[in-house]
Each structure stands twice: as structure tokens, then as C-alpha cells.
Amino acid sequence: MSLDWIYTAISWILLRWHALWDAIGIPDDKVLGTNWSWVLAIIFLVVTLRVILFPVFVKQIKSQRAMQSLQPKIKELQNKHKGDRETLQKEMMELYKTEKANPLMGCLPMVLQIPVFIGLFHTLRHLVPGRNATLYGWSEAQFESATQAHLFGVPLPSQFGSSPAQLASLGANGTHVKILAAVLVLIMMVTTYATSRQMILKTGWAEDPQQKMIQRLMLYGIPLSLLVSGSLFPIGVIIYWVTNNLFTLSQQQWVLRKFPPPQVAGRANPSAPLRPAAAPAKPGANGSAKNTPVQPPRTGGLFGRKAAAIQEPEVPAVETKALAPKPGAKPVNPKKGARPASKPKG
Questions:
Q1: Distance between first and last Cα of the chain
Q2: Coil, helix or strand at residue 179
Q3: What is the largest distance, in Å, between two alpha-carbon atoms of the chain?
Q4: Does pTM top 0.70 for this prediction?
Q5: What is the pLDDT of residues 144-176, one digit of tens each?
Q6: I need a labelling partner for 133 at 20 to 30 A (CA). Which of 47, 57, 69, 289 fits?
């Protein structure tokens, strides 16, 4: 199956943004060793994509909320069918169908971005002198300009693992390319981890083993895989990935602040494991119920680190009883001075 239509579509969006920046006066020449018209074209390619995918992102949030509300029922099914994995999976699929929840919806925005990533990756790797300049709707002038585009003196089509022949064709310094690519790959890994961690801390770990495995893959597996695969990404693709992560962090923070996730019964902290509902308070020695402070949910902050202040329960004043006199001490009559009761007459 040919993917030329994807490469042509990505090229069209990229070239339209570059033409816009050129029209408003951003020069193609280097400023601080950077051709900003091409860098901004890649950044706003991300903005275009995220605006188109915003309805899908909202569906992702709703699906995650639905999965969170099902955690008590999932836990109940796990306890009921412990050791019978086949029956457990069947019952859980029925539960998802009844409640209209989809555990795979959380991965949908990332899946939809894969064709865009592949298209940009292929397009930037095509920007090498000597190749077909007019492929995918490019003009010769646009191809020549993009081939010479740099970020802090490093060509956008270059990558950490570029061969000496590729570096020579781009006129790039191998040491400079590796330093900038390594820094950008590190930023890409950190921001990828941060986007997954932000969502998990706000919505909590899933009790469903399949959903929890997906969460762990998103949190640890993908950032670690970038340590290897990042060396194959052109500088322009890494710019795209980092910009996409920063956009996701901001978008998630806005949505989670405006529409905070509901609290699951018996769990004040959404990132904590599910616990049974609290038992009624036991009476204390004086017959009053003991007040036990409850851990508040995480609120505020990028990753929900700030905790609400815990208000200490008011302890009622206890009436102190007079101590018995020490042995040998003169007894004290607290009612001294009071008139004695009159004796009844016989």
C-alpha cells in the first residue's frame, strides 16, 4: 500500500505554514543559526494536528473517567473469579459493553498521530541534495530552502546516527549534530514520561490488568524505547515530538483543572489503590465517636503534588476530676462554709 498520500498531505500543511511565515516577514536566513520559518512550520504542524484531534482527546478523557468509575466493579469481579482468567475476561468484556466503556480508547489519539509522524519522518529524510526535488508537491526552491534549514547550526534533516556521507551531503558537523540530537532526545524522553505520569496521577492506576499494562507501557516503555529509536529521528522530527508533548501537557492540565476527575468511593487519593468503604466510627471511652482525619486528594500543580491542608479535628474539652488527697495530708472540704442540712424533728 502506497503512503504517498500521507507524505503529500503532510508536505502540503508544512509548506502552507512556511509560506505564511514568509509572507508575514520571517526571513529564510539564519538567525542564531536557525531558520525560524521552517522550525515554526514544524511547530504549527503540531498545532494543526492537535486542533483537528481535540474531539478525539475529549473522548479519551471521557473513556478514562468511565474506566475509573468501573474500578470497584472490576475489583469485585477479580475477587469473585480469582484463578479463573477466562471467566474473568468474559465478565469484564460484558461489563465494558454494558457500561459503554472502552479500555483501548486511551491510546486512540496516539494511534491517530502515527501516520502524521511517519509522514513527517519520511518527508524530512527525503530532504537530501540530489533527490527528486519536486516530489510530494514541493517546488525546487522550497526543496532547496528546506535542505539548508538549520536549528542552532544543525541541519533539520540530520540525525544522531547520520553516516559520514549523509553529513557531508548536508554540510553538517558530526559532533554538533550528535550533541544537539542527544539533548533533544533527552527532552523528548522526559516530556513523553511527563505526559503519561500527569494523566495517571490525576485519574489513578487501573484495576483491570489489561488497562494497567497499557498504563505501564505508556509510562515506562515508550520513553525508554526513545533512547534507541531517537537516534534514528531527524532533528525536525524530534522538534515535532517535543512540541507535541508540551502541547499535550498544557492541554491535559487545562482539561483536568476545568473538569476534575470524580472521586471513587473509599479512595480520596485517585492514585492510591482501591480500598473498601470506611467502617462506622467506633465509640471512644467517653461514648463519643473517634474522629479520624481523612487523607485529602491531590490538587493543583502540574502533577498533582500539592495536597490540600488537613484540618485537625477539634478535640472536646474533657472535665478534669479532682485527685484524691495524698496519705497524711489534711482533707479539704470543698463545701466548707456551706450551711449544714437541718435535721428533721422527731
A1: 123
A2: helix
A3: 135
A4: no
A5: 999 999 999 999 999 998 889 888 988 899 999
A6: 47
